[in-house]
Amino acid sequence: MKIYSIIIALLVTIISFGQNNVLIKNVKVFDGDNVISKTSVLFENGIISKISNRIDVANEKNMYVIDGEGKTLLPALSNAHVHAWAPESLKQAAKAGVLNVMDMHGFETYQGPMRQLKDSTDYANYYVAGFAATAPEGHGTQFGFSVPTLSQPEDAKQFIADRVKANVDHIKIIVEPWKATLDSATVAELIKEAHNAEKIAVVHVSRLEDAINVIENDADGLVHIWWDKALDSEKLKELSEDQSFFVIPTLLTTLKAFESFGAGADKFLTKAQLLSEVKKMYDAGIPILAGTDPPNLNINYGTDLYKELELLEASGLPILEVLKAGTSNITTAFGLENTGFIKVGFSADLLLVDGDVTTDIKAIANVNTVWKKGQKVKL
Questions:
Q1: Quick check: pTM over 0.85?
Q2: Which CA distances in Å does 176 have to 4, 156, 192, 271?
Q3: Number of folded domains in the chain?
Q4: CATH code of the domain in which 50 resides
Q5: Are 371 and 66 spatial neighbours (Cβ–Cβ below 8 Å)?
Q6: Is 7's pLDDT higher than 80?
C-alpha cells in the first residue's frame, strides 16, 4: 500500500510540474503594447520566463507544449467597472478570460472574503472601492444595505479615512443629479483626501457639466461617459492638455439604459453621437478603459465584456487600442503590478484564443485556454 502512495505522489508531482511549465510555440502575440506576428512564450511556475522566436528547452518532456499556430496569445482581460456581489461573479469572469475586475460600489463586509479568492485559480482578482461616496438618499443608497453618506466637504476626511481602514484599492465618488447628489465642493474635497491617502479617485457622472467639473478638480477617471450633450473640441483640448485622466465609457450599459428609457431616450445623445464622444477622447490622447457595470441591465461578468470591446471598435478605435482598453490600459490606470502585459518577469495571466484577434475583435470569444498565475482556469 505504501508503494502505491509513493507512486501516486510522484505522478501528481510530475503532472503538477508539467502544468506549471508551459511552452506555447509559433503563436501570434499581443503583448499589451504591440503585436509579434510569430514567437514562442515560456512560462515557469506562474511567471513568464522567455519570449523568443527560438526557445531551446533542454527537456521538453518536462514542459506542457502547445502549438500556437493559428492562435493569438494576449494578456488576460480586465473589467474596469463591475459590482460583484458573490464569488460566482468572479468565477464567471475568469472563465471568459477576465482575471481582474474593478468593483465600483459594494458592501464592504462581503468584499473582504471575496478578495481572498485572489489565490484561487478559478476566480478573477477582485479590486474594490468599498462603499462609494454619495449623498443622503443619493444614487448608491437604493440597494438594500446601509451606506455611509456625506452632506458637506467637512465629511470627506473621515469618509476617506474609513475607506482606507477598510483597505480599499480605489475611491469611487457618485455625482448623479437624477437623485440627491454631492455638491462640487464636497466632490473636490473627496478627490483631495483620496490623493492624500494615495488612492486614485474615480467619479460616476452622466452629465457633461459634471464630467468637466470633476476633471478640473483632478479626478483620475470617469467611470461612465456623459449622456446629455457633446463635448466642445476646444474644451476637450483644454482638458486633455491641463489634466491627466482616463475614461471608462461603459457603452454597453449606456445603450441598454437608453433602450429601457423608451421614448425618453430622445433627450440624450444618439448611439452614433455617443460613439463619437469616445473617439474624440481617444484622438485627444485620453486613455480608454473597457468596463461593463454588471449586473446592471442583466449584463454578465464575463462574455459581455467582448461586446464592450466590439463597441469600442465601432467607435473608431484601432483594434490594438481596443485590446489595450481591455488589458494594459486598465492595469496601468489602476496600478496593478506585473500583469496586463506579456513581458518576461510578469505573471502568466494569459488568454489564448483560436484565430487572430489582432485583425478580428470577435475572435476574442474563441477562448482556447485561460491561465491565472500559470495555472489553467477551469472553463
A1: yes
A2: 65, 18, 20, 21
A3: 2
A4: 2.30.40.10
A5: no
A6: no
